[in-house]
Amino acid sequence: MSTGLVSQDTIVALATSPGVNGAIAVIRLSGSQAITITNAVFNGKDLLNQHTHTIHFGTIRDGEEIIDEVLISLFKGPHSYTKEDVVEISTHNSKYIIERLIALLIKKGARAAQAGEFTLRAFLNGGMDLSQAEAVADLIASENKASHEIAMNQMRGGISNKLQEMREQLINFTALLELELDFGEEDVEFADRAQFEALVQELKMHIAKLIQSFAYGNAIKHGVPVAIIGKPNAGKSTLLNTLLDEERAIVSDIAGTTRDTIEESINLDGITFRFIDTAGLRETADTIEAIGVTKAKEKVRQAKVLLYLYDDKDSTADEVIAQVKELYYDGLIVILVRNKIDLQGGYHSNEMDTAITDVLFTNYSDSLVAISAKDSESVDRLKGVLLDKIRGMAVEDQQIITNTRHVEALEQALEALGQVEAGLGILLPGDLLAHHVRTALRHISSITGDIDVDRDILGTIFGKFCIGK
Ligand code: GDP
């Protein structure tokens, strides 16, 4: 796509979803000719003489033919989404009307917008920084409360503000370092090295925290992947069905939701949990024996959470311990689930629990829940533990990274700051120090787009948007 800087041409696109049976569609124009072009086909007040943020009723005509009765909303730059003149035309939602109208506006001088071009203009014209623009796409895609919250925070500048602060501190310091260079041979130090070291350490800590938040942010954005594993007949498919059925009972009350959209995932208090690779599980028993240890491990690798299910009448503590150890990888959340307590006279912690937790707790897991998948007994407790584990990944008041591009930039910034720190340790000369600081700055700035971002990168970012956004 073209990412030509602030172009003067006026773009047009349908801003609402195409092909949906809503009552109204909105066609949006942005650019210096937006109002003139609309005025040329509008029959009503003279739009050229109206104030910004006003709405006008009238008809759109192609020659003598009336195409539709519409409402026109006017936004004069810079008080608009793109910072340019913007017109939004609310029409009846007919495919025919929309096509005629867009064709007419193009005939009068507008150009069909490319994917993400409205938001790209908002970015290029300074209406928002790059991370905020990316959050617009996330906001549109958000399907649950938690991802909505994160995207909204990012769009409103949550992450950018902190990054800006870091940038300014680094820029101030580089300025001092460069001042030293201006003095050449003279042995002067304007930049207090001890103070700088403290700053670098603080920044490193903050960036490391942001990087850590990605595990949580990513899980929230895409749903937390959960693997249910255990021996044959442990009750895995029963548990999955119980979890899904309870969810379905709640969700099916909401008009318009279909079974398909909620299948294999549940929403607990705004967080989506996805049960991965359950195709086999629901029909045949997906057992470690049946799928093999290698496959079970592969499956667990894709998961963030392992629900390891066992039946104490059919397993020994040693078996459970060996399998969990075999499946474990660093960072995996393991919840041990003892099933079929209805056959065991209710929930009582027993010797086998103790034998298992003695070995597995601390290093592999810290939760054991006893349930009856069949009777839905204590399944709510299991849900509570799941939720607590995921919530526990987020630090209070922390900014949360959800974007791979951002986490990569942060990792590179962290590395460069590591070089700065090492450089300070060995009394590296100012010019070499400044080089590493600039590298860190470049990576931090690439998140907000405060440097010239590569056109290809812009193309990739905005190309992911829908047309009209
Ligand atoms: P999977 O092989 O691990 O998927 O196990 P299934 O879910 O197919 O369950 C195996 C058998 O155990 C079935 O007959 C289930 O009805 C039964 N089962 C599963 N959970 C429970 C439970 O909590 N209590 C009792 N009594 N039986 C259960």
UniProtKB/TrEMBL annotation:
Protein known as: tRNA modification GTPase MnmE
UniProt cofactor(s): K(+)
Signal peptide (UniProt feature, chain positions): none
Ranges for domain TrmE-type G: 223-391
Primary localization: cytoplasm
Subunit structure and binding partners: Homodimer. Heterotetramer of two MnmE and two MnmG subunits.
Binding note for cofactor: Binds 1 potassium ion per subunit.
Encoding gene per record: mnmE
InterPro entries: G_TrmE, GTP-bd, GTP-bd_TrmE_N, GTPase_MnmE, MnmE_dom2, MnmE_helical, P-loop_NTPase, Small_GTP-bd
Keywords, sorted A to Z: Cytoplasm, GTP-binding, Hydrolase, Magnesium, Metal-binding, Nucleotide-binding, Potassium, tRNA processing
